[in-house]
Amino acid sequence: MSKNYSTLGLSKKIYQNVDIKILKKIFDKMSYCREFENNVKKYKDLGIINNLVYLSLGQESIGASLSYVFKKPWILFQHRGHSNYISFGGNQKKLIDELIGLPTGSNKGYGGSPSIQDFNKKILGHSGLIGDHVPIACGLALKIKKNDTVICFFGDGAAEEDYVLAALSFAGTKKLPILFICEDNDLSVLTPTSERRNWNIKDVANSFNINSCDITDDPLLIINKANHYKNKLPA
After folding, report:
1. Does a structural domain hold residue 234?
2. In this predicted structure, what is the pLDDT of residue 7?
3. Is residue 235 part of a domain?
4. pTM (2 decimals)?
5. Contacts of 66 (CB under 8 A, 6+ apart)
6. Tens digits of per-residue pLDDT, 174-196?
7. What is the CATH number of the domain that holds 74?
8. Any idea where the Dehydrogenase E1 component domain is (predicted)?
9. Alpha-helix runs per DSSP H in the chain
10. Residues 93, 150: contact at Cβ < 8 Å?
11. Disulfide-capable partner of 83 in 56, 122, 161, 232 (CB 3.0 to 4.6 Å)?
12. Sequence-distant (≥ 6) Cβ neighbours of residue 20 within 8 angstroms
């Protein structure tokens, strides 16, 4: 997902025939995720949460939209994964406890904000190292049941790691049932993409025989593309 606003014309056409109830469900989920993150920040500022937190503010639409298309996929995401965790039904009580550092947390209080899982919901999440979950997602996709799907979220910074690129190549070669989502905010910490590389992740994915596109994070545009690619994986 990027700032590619050239796709908004297509999005307008999609909105003309949309069921308003679908939009409301997605917006409700996005709003819930935003309010959850606002409260995390609030309690972090108050000192109730003493550990580091990695907020997913501004990334709510992607998980909320994809959860409408994929009902029970396997989920792996980057360190800013709270919204994706919530969107796909992760146990929120365990998430809160993990943020506080309690033994009742999703990782018994040891992982904190970047390392959250809920195996009951097929959410494997992230372990903390940038992009390390991408090859793990490929290994999972290699062994899952027929008609099952893996969704792997990662950032544009992680896309530059050698093991991520190798994993993408492997997924394309083996035609794995995996949907890769690159959440691209044009920054790796504070360094813009233009100062880091002169290639586009979409072009690299295409070179690995992975169906890909570059769109902005408009909910119905995400749904449209997800429906288009879900039977053409890897994408």
Report:
1. no
2. 53
3. no
4. 0.91
5. 87, 151, 179, 181, 222, 223, 226
6. 999 999 999 987 667 667 777 78
7. 3.40.50.970
8. 32-214
9. 8-15, 20-45, 60-69, 82-87, 92-100, 133-143, 162-174, 201-207, 219-229
10. no
11. 56
12. none
